[in-house]
Structure formats: structure tokens, C-alpha cells
Amino acid sequence: MRTETEVLGDLWRVWGAWGADLDEERWTAPTRCAGWDVAALYAHVSQGVGGLAALVRRRRAEGPPEHGDAVALLRALKPDEHVAADLAARNADAAVADARAAGTAELVRRLAEDGPAAVALAAAEPDQTVEYFRRGTTTVRAATVVRLVEATVHLLDLAAALGREPDLPDGATEHTVRFLTGMAPPLALIEVATGRRAPDIFPVFG
């Protein structure tokens, strides 16, 4: 399987290439993410570029990570229902505001130009322990997987909004499915997948 950084680099390149071809009408098309048009979706995903670079450059930590992989990290960060609703609303508002302030050309530039540089930083030290924005420590690899999954899931949202087929690079599906499977309670997942239980464990990641 291709590495996380290789796949993430390709995903961000796809985002950049698609964005370069969008006209104003498509930038304002609604998506299936409540409250977000295509520009807000781009803002949200492109924020991950700077976030990953910041982790590698400025948030290095010593010792083994508290959260050893992306599944452990996201499980630890998962808030309760009331906090989750508030956090989702704030994230949605932040993406809309960023899209308006930055402009579409800047959103594309982040992914097409800053993206490769951020990926190169992550690829150089995938096992480096970093502080994950005051939420404990993890590895650069785990942070990369979080952004890979986010870029994959939201690329499906983008494809649906634009009425085109997803253009997922090799490895994106495999890494994302591995992560989502890890997030699900294993016995419940077996029962759901074999028709022995209602799909009440989903969604496992939003």
C-alpha cells in the first residue's frame, strides 16, 4: 500500500486541479455538508495544509505519543454529543468565514502550492511525536492520516456537488476504509456487516 503522505499529496493535488477549473457558479453550489457551499468545503480542507505544516515545524514533542495512531487520536478527541454539536457549528462557521476572506484563488493555491511542501515535511519525519493542538501528543503519521481521510470523504462531497465522478488516487480508499473500520466497535461491525444487527453504530466519523 502507498504511504499516507504519498496519498495525501495526490489528494490535495486533485483538489487543486479541480478548483482551478471551477467557475463562479460552481464555487457557490451547495454541498451535502449543511451550510457549506463548494468554497466553504475548499476552505475547510485547505486549512489542513497549514495545520499539518504547523505540527511538523512548531509542535514537536519528546517521548512516545499518547495517541499512537489516527484511530486512537480521534477516539480521544471525540467529544460528547452536546460539545460535538457546538464544535460542528463553530467549524462550519469558520469555514464559511475563511472562504469569504481568502477568496477562491487563495483556497486553490493552498492546496496546489502549499500542499506539496506540507506533505514533504510530513514525509521526512512520519514517526516524530508532536503536540496535537493542546489535545495530547501523537505522531506526524497519525495527523497525516486524519487529513487523508478528511480529504477523501470531502472529495466525495465535492464530486456530488459538482455532479462528477470521484477522482480518488490509488490508496485513498484503502487508507480511509482502514481508518473507518478501526473507529467502529469491532464486534458490532461484524454483526452489522453480516446482517445480524441494525446499522446503529454509524456514523463512526463525521
> Approximately what portion of the residues adopt beta-strand conformation?
under 5%
Q: What is the structural class? A: mainly alpha
Return Rg in Å. Answer: 17 Å
The biggest sheet, with number of strands, parallel, antiparallel or mixed sense and barrel status, is: 2 strands, antiparallel
Strand order of the largest sheet: 1-2
Q: Give the count of helical stretches.
A: 9
- Principal-axis shape: globular
Order of helices and strands: HHHHHHEEHHH
Residue ranges: pLDDT <50 for 5 or more in a row? Answer: none
Assembly status: single chain
Helix content: 55-70%
Mean of residue pLDDT? 93
How far do the termini sit from each other?
A: 25 Å
Number of strands: 2
Commentary on this structure:
A two-stranded antiparallel sheet has the order 1-2. The protein contains 9 helices and 2 strands; from the N terminus they run ααααααββααα. It has a domain at 4-50 and 71-116 and 145-193. It has helices at residues 4-20, 24-27, 38-58, 70-77, 81-102, 104-124, 140-162, 172-183, 186-193, and strands spanning 129-131, 137-139. The chain has 206 residues and is mostly helical. It starts with a helix and ends in a 13-residue tail after the last helix.
